[in-house]
Specification:
CATH topology of the largest domain: Rossmann fold
Strand order of the largest sheet: 1-2-3
Distance between the termini: 33 Å
Shape: elongated
Bound molecules: tryptophan
Largest sheet: 3 strands, parallel
Number of helices: 14
Radius of gyration: 22 Å
Number of strands: 5
Structural class: mainly alpha
CATH superfamily of the largest domain: HUPs
Oligomer: single chain
Order of helices and strands: EHEHHEHHHHHEHEHHHHH
């Protein structure tokens, strides 16, 4: 049995790109009987850059509701909130003794963040990778499904795990690897002509899993297009390719073929294509929205999920911490 751990910062309701690019694969992993999966909300990590209490509470609830709506089943996966595991900061403190200032200062995400938040370069920001390593090795994980941008953090996690093992001459922590699904990942482009749907793009760039029907129509109708093809079988410019790629994700093959033929014959009407895309996207999003909204008003259920998940996660974390303390000589009586 392999242990899988992944965390997500509480960013609220996700967009289509998050779903097709990542969450759908977490769900697939969670359904694989070879894995025991732990998925959590990294609320401590968000404190390295944000500090609005009311906002944090709302975002954490929205994030949990979204993951459940996407199909993560609390019966199959341990779903919990990072700050519900006191063992994580405990391990973080111990790992901090193994983490060197020099290696932490070299981390790309740290360098980016000190540029973005030059007024708030705190120790938590610098030790972000140590906390992340604690999240992962607290369950002695083997695989960590994350995006490419997290590879360096995983490398550091392996370094801390190896350093612990070699300093105490034990074989206690496995060396966890980033697992990013390779070619199974679907790239979801933005509606503003950008290569990737993202939260930080133009206002209409991303379609969220809880967007209303009219909101979706409005965003899709504003999607960037060009003057149309002037010769048969012309190569599609990026923004048009994006609209076709979005159709690939949400529309029926016949529909896609119809518009592709129209493009190649130079009689495509982008207005019609976008209307169709909007309706197909609505069909894809509506069940998510309904589920998210149902879950958000059912606080008791959300609470029950993370309470139960927290219990199971603490049980696993306790075993690790006891092992670590024993190895380090912190078991006196
Ligand atoms: N750093 C990750 C991100 O920004 C979130 C995260 C925190 C994480 N702890 C983790 C991911 C542990 C995987 C495992 O996306």
């Amino acid at each position: 049995m392999e242990i899988v751990v992944s965390g997500t910062r509480p960013t609220g309701v996700l967009h289509l790109g998050n779903y097709f690019g990542a969450v759908r694969n977490y769900v697939r992993m969670s359904e694989d009987p070879n894995y025991t999966c732990y998925f959590f909300i990294a609320d401590y990590h968000s404190l390295t850059t944000h500090h609005q209490p009311a906002e944090l509470t709302k975002l954490v609830k929205q994030t949990i509701a979204t993951y459940l709506a996407c199909g993560l089943d609390p019966k199959k996966v341990v779903i919990y909130i990072q700050s519900h595991l006191p063992q994580i900061p405990e391990l973080y403190l111990l790992l901090n003794m193994l983490a060197y200032k020099g290696e932490l200062e070299k981390v790309a995400t740290f360098k980016e963040k000190i540029k973005m938040h030059s007024e708030n370069i705190n120790a938590g920001l610098m030790t972000y990778p140590v906390l992340m390593a604690s999240d992962i090795i607290i369950h002695r994980a083997h695989k960590v499904p994350v995006g490419k941008d997290q590879e360096q953090h995983l490398e550091m996690t392996r370094n801390f795990a190896k350093r612990f093992n070699s300093r105490y001459d034990v074989d206690f922590f496995p060396e966890p690897v980033a697992y990013n699904f390779g070619s199974e990942l679907i790239k979801v482009p933005g509606l503003d002509g950008s290569l990737k749907m993202s939260k930080s793009g133009a206002a209409n760039n991303a379609v969220y899993l809880d967007d209303g029907d009219d909101e979706i129509r409005r965003k899709v109708m504003k999607a960037k297009t060009d003057g149309g093809p002037t010769e048969p079988n012309q190569v599609k410019p990026q923004e048009i390719k994006n609209i076709f790629e979005l159709m690939d994700i949400v529309s029926a093959p016949d529909t896609i073929r119809h518009f592709n033929d129209a493009y190649n014959n130079c009689n495509i009407r982008y207005g019609d294509m976008k209307k169709q895309l909007a309706e197909d996207m609505i069909k894809c999003i509506a069940p998510f929205r309904q589920k998210i909204n149902e879950l958000l008003v059912n606080e008791d259920y959300l609470h029950k999920v993370v309470r139960k998940g927290g219990e199971a996660a603490r049980e696993s974390a306790d075993k690790t911490i006891s092992g670590v303390k024993k190895i380090m000589g912190l078991n006196y009586f």
